[in-house]
Amino acid sequence: MKMRGKRAYIREVLRDYPEICKKLPEKRTRNEQRRVEIVKGVLEMIERMSDARSKKKIVEMVYFRKSHTLHGAAMEIPVASRTVDRWNGQIMRAVEEIMDLP
User: Fold this and answer.
1) What is the pLDDT of residues 13-66, one digit of tens each?
2) Whether the Cβ atoms of residue 96 and residue 6 lie closer than 8 Å to each other
């Protein structure tokens, strides 16, 4: 899988999470249930990282609520744009690790 395609897929998984969580667990498909488990695992990994509160805020604003861009979230937190880019890379790598993507 190409890096660009991999990142797009990860973003899709993160963005779909809030909508999938609205469904009752017995109404979810296996794929949706797997996605929920993946995102929960990522959120647990983020909890163990440094600056966990800020990183969770980024995930919430950028991927779950879709109310900010990465750089808009950086201004909201406030941290440097480069820092948010680095943190986003860490989050993407955490999802890759949990999903076991090549």
Assistant:
1) 999 999 999 999 889 999 999 999 999 999 999 999 889 999 999 999 999 999
2) yes
CA torsion angle 40 42 43 47 (round to 10): 140
> Which 3-state string (H, E, C) describes the chain?
CCHHHHHHHHHHHHHHHHHHHHCCHHHCCHHHHHHHHHHHHHHHHHHCCCCHHHHHHHHHHHHHCCCCCHHHHHHHCCCCHHHHHHHHHHHHHHHHHHHCCC
Q: State residue 1's pLDDT score.
A: 47
The closest of 12, 10, 101, 92 to 46, measured between CA atoms, is 92
